[in-house]
Write the structure tokens for this entry.
Amino acid sequence: MPYCNRCHQEIDETDHYCRKCGRALQPGTGFWYTHSGIILLMLVLGPFALITVYLSKVISRTAKAVYSVLILLMSVYFGYCCWKIFTLMQEMLNSSLALPY
């Protein structure tokens, strides 16, 4: 019989999760590889969540493609917003230095 790597409890070969500690026994099938985990990582890590998307064995190829496009679009939009804020701050700084006191 196989054993869980975390709690060393004896597990059944058909189990996907340990019955004692809840750890995913097959790589790419834990919470972070599900739809809700990927969405959470997308909001927190941005483009670095793509790694989890590609390693997931839970979601379909279509879902992987959709998540990839969404993550890339969100990253481009966030980058554009940062650039726009930077240019606005530069304009404000330049206009405040040009005012006579």
Q: What stands out?
A: The chain has a mean pLDDT of 85. The radius of gyration is 22 Å. Residues 3 and 9 are 5 Å apart (CA to CA).
